[in-house]
Design a protein that fits this description.
alpha+beta; three-stranded antiparallel sheet; rod-shaped; two-stranded antiparallel ribbon
Length: 153
């Protein structure tokens, strides 16, 4: 009878050390993030200077360059002068722009996730905690009882 009690205590001690914990590995995908940054640049462009003049004995004059035109006319003692920009006048501006491209690659990492317990497993765990404290109380009671019993006899 005594060896059966010791064996039972060993079994209970081993069962109290076992747990319901289980590690599951969840695969994580590789995440690739591309981000492009375009730096906006404003520049001042100096136009090609043009200077033109004319002298004429006529009553009208016309000047032009790639950007604008001008005409002048003398009539009845009055000088009329006009300046206009060509409708298709353009200038070529080379604006450098900078593109920074960043590629971030996140490598998969192993994440340990504990398995959720079923209701039965949770019940066993709760009852096991109460049982351990009950057994500790019983052992303390038995030790005190044996010590008191030995001292009396």
């Amino acid at each position: 009878m005594r060896t059966a009690g010791i064996f039972l205590l060993y079994v209970l001690a081993l069962l109290s050390l076992a747990s319901c914990r289980q590690v599951r590995y969840i695969p994580v995908e590789t995440v690739r993030v591309d981000s492009t940054v375009v730096h906006d640049t404003s520049m001042y462009v100096r136009l090609v200077p043009y200077k033109d003049s004319t002298a004429t004995r006529d009553t009208s004059s016309f000047l032009s360059n790639p950007y604008a035109y001008s005409w002048a006319r003398w009539s009845d003692g009055l000088l009329q002068h006009s300046l206009g920009i060509w409708p298709t006048a353009t200038t070529q501006v080379k604006v450098p722009y900078f593109i920074d491209r960043y590629v971030t690659i996140t490598q998969p990492q192993i994440v340990e996730v504990e398995k959720e317990l079923s209701k039965w497993q949770q019940f066993k765990q709760d009852v096991g905690g109460v049982a351990i404290f009950g057994l500790l109380g019983l052992i303390i009671f038995l030790v005190v009882y044996v010590v008191v019993y030995v001292r009396r006899h």
